C-alpha cells in the first residue's frame, strides 16, 4: 500500500522536474497566489479573534466540529481530541496554520526549524505563540514506521504541545499517521528537493529567512534593538585594521554612537571606519524559540 503511494510521489516529482522552468514558475506563482488569499483571510479573522476555517471564536470548542483552532487550547480541548484534528487536516496543514499563528505574534523568531539546532530528523520544528508551544517531530524511523505497535507501523509523526512550559501533549502520546497524499508529497520532496520544496508561504521560519537573503541585504535592512536578548537575528561584525594601520578606540566608539543614534546596526556602518575592512556574521538571535528536544540530545545556542 505505502509503496504504491511512494511510487506515485516519485513519479510526480519526475513529472515536475521534466517541466520547463517557465511552467514550474507559473505553478509556483499560482500556489503562492492561493496561499496569499487564504492568509489574508486568516489574518483578518485572527485579529478579530475568530477562526477563518470554522468562522467561530478562537475560544470556542464544539466536539462535533474538529478545527485547527483547537490547537490554541480553547476551554474543553483535551489531548485525546488531537487525533480528530490531525486526521482531518494532517501534518502540513496543521503546521502551516500554526506557523501563521506564530508569525502573528512575532515574525520569524517564533519558528525554529534550524537544521544545526536539530537532531538530524526528517522533520523537526518548534513553533510558539504566546504561552503555547508546539513541536513536530518525524525521524526516518517514524517515516518508515517502527514496528512496536500496529499504529506505529504506518508512516507517522509525533507532536508535542506545551502550555506555560508544562507538558500538555507528549511526543510519545500519539503516532499520528501521514495521509497518502502527504506520503506522496514527502517522497517527491525526498527525490527532488530542489523542485519540490517544503515551503510554508507566510509561515516562514528564522531558517527560511537566513537562507533566502544575502548577509548584505540583512545587514542593510536590519534595525538595531534595545532589547538584544529578544532579537531574532544576531549580527556580529569583525573589523580588521588594514596592514600596518591601527584602529583607535575613539573611531570604534564613534561608529557605536552613530549606530545607536540612527537605530541601525554597527555592521551597516562598518564600512565608514577608516583604514579597515569589516566582516559580518549573521546567525539566529537569542530571541528565537528553542527547538524542544525529543531525545535528550540537545545543542545549545
Ligand atoms: Zn476553527
Ligand atoms: Zn514514532
Ligand atoms: Zn513510537
Task: Write up this protein.
There is one protein chain. The chain is an alpha+beta fold and 301 residues long. It folds into two domains: 211 residues, no CATH class; 70 residues, no CATH class. It has eight helices and eight strands. Strands 1, 2, 3, 4, 5 and 6 form a six-stranded antiparallel β-sheet that branches. A two-stranded antiparallel sheet has the order 7-8. Helix 1 crosses helix 5. The longest helix has 27 residues. The protein is globular, with a radius of gyration of 23 Å. It binds zinc ion (ZN) (3 copies).
Describe the SSE topology:
Layout: H1 2-18, H2 21-47, H3 82-105, E1 111-112, E2 123-129, E3 132-138, H4 140-144, E4 156-163, E5 166-169, E6 176-177, H5 180-191, H6 206-212, H7 215-221, E7 233-241, H8 249-262, E8 276-284
Antiparallel strand pairs: 1-2, 2-3, 3-4, 4-5, 4-6, 7-8
Helix pairs in contact: 1-5
One zinc ion binds next to loops.
